[in-house]
């Protein structure tokens, strides 16, 4: 910057000398005398030189300003405090971060609860272990894991503990890299749908029991429901077999589409059933089936098989309700249930039921009757009046109650003022008479008369 200023000054001095020579045509004067004396006469061709001098003077002024700013900034840096040098890093011998670790652990647990995904371990360019925490309704804690190999830039699942039949390939069709957060979230979504479909299937199976036959593949993406239906609008309509088929995608909890095996259906029934099955698109499986074929307004209703079961149980009632527990009684009961199974399967319209299934259904019906009977008794004995809110028994339940009256109603209380009959007498037990031992009779004061209570044998007197 100083060199540039000197060059500009020399250029100015040279221009002034040149003008002076032209003006005087005499010997050159000194610069100081020239400035004091001034020029007496200006030549005609010196205007360009004057403009050049002004331009150089302006450049000189600008350069001087820049030099001033540079010097000012340099002085300012010198006045600022010097920066501290970075101290050398010393590795500590012991690090105590209990609070930070506990806080981090709480945050990770919260993230795993909210997202259901936990990174259990991660080693760069080696492997990554992902754990999925399932939060559906179950008595046990369910987790599923994936081990992803990261060697050589290839992300592949080497080990997994996914549920039986889970279709991981269907999830990976939409992704190229399994390590993407979107892909890991999609696997979690598919697992939730997997367990949701299984829960719906179990609830429907429990509701139908003997009224229908259910089938599904492992992941629940395809289901078949076989049952007997009848047109409720015509009393003379004959019942027919219905097979409802439901198809799901890997992320679906409602059926993507449903269809019927039309070979078993009456003419025109397939289209009516498709319109009647609209609740399957918006409600869980068991609730949709109940609304469609049991409580709904559609023409086709489920033909309940419990009437057939109860009529067959009445036929063998004396054997099945026998309270004896000897071997011959158990054999008679097993033979009766086998007969009920054969007759039920012959009359149920192609739906096969095992002896165990029929037993479970009958025991469930008896429990329902006992609960309703207990509710009716509590409403009957309740004070304060009002409407009876206990659910009434239907015809089938009345038939079951007639077979189990004693266990359903129980014994009447002998202290009930409303009961006017004779109290139930409990069977009397045979009481054994006490016979004292004759050898100790004379030595036992318990059996002595009162007037002889002070009597003692001579051998007792000291």
UniProtKB/TrEMBL annotation:
Pfam family, one: Myb_DNA-bind_5
Coiled-coil parts of chain: 39-73
Chain intervals for the UniProt region annotation (Disordered): 418-462
InterPro entries assigned to the protein according to its UniProt record, in alphabetical order: Myb_DNA-bind_5
Residue spans of biased composition, Basic and acidic residues class: 452-462
A cellular component annotation (GO) from this entry: nucleus
Superkingdom classification of source: Eukaryota
Myb/SANT-like DNA-binding domain: residues covered: 304-374
Keyword Transcription recorded: yes
Keywords from the named record: Coiled coil, Transcription, Transcription regulation
Subunit composition and interactions: Self-associates forming complexes of several hundred monomers.
Function: Involved in transvection phenomena (= synapsis-dependent gene expression), where the synaptic pairing of chromosomes carrying genes with which zeste interacts influences the expression of these genes. Zeste binds to DNA and stimulates transcription from a nearby promoter.
Name assigned to this protein: Regulatory protein zeste
Phylogenetic placement of the source organism: Eukaryota, Metazoa, Ecdysozoa, Arthropoda, Hexapoda
